[in-house]
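Pinned message: reference record for Thyroglobulin type-1 domain-containing protein
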Amino acid sequence: MNYILSALVLASFCLSAAVAATACEEHRERELTSDSKVKLIPICTENGEYDSLQFFEGSPFCMCLRPDGTHFTYPSLILNACSFIAHRDRVVIQHLIGNYSPHCEVYGTYTR
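Predicted structure (tokens):
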């Protein structure tokens, strides 16, 4: 009897952990029910993290976010890619002296 009870408790714990929403998913649900005219409805990756390029609904603005949801660019009208800017952000955050730091155009691509 104790074995069955333990198995049920373990199964319910695993099930609740599997359906727990990530911060991005919770943020998305909040924004979907918001009455705001201009809002950022986050796009989440398969892992539940924030996608790097995010768009403001009802606005031409977009911005780049880190996987934890913090932004590393301000809202922009001309930004169209975040992968290059994200690369530079990861390098700068490491604070390595003498390390190569890529340079990016304002719209999100590498400078030549």
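Pinned by admin. Summary line: The radius of gyration is 20 Å.
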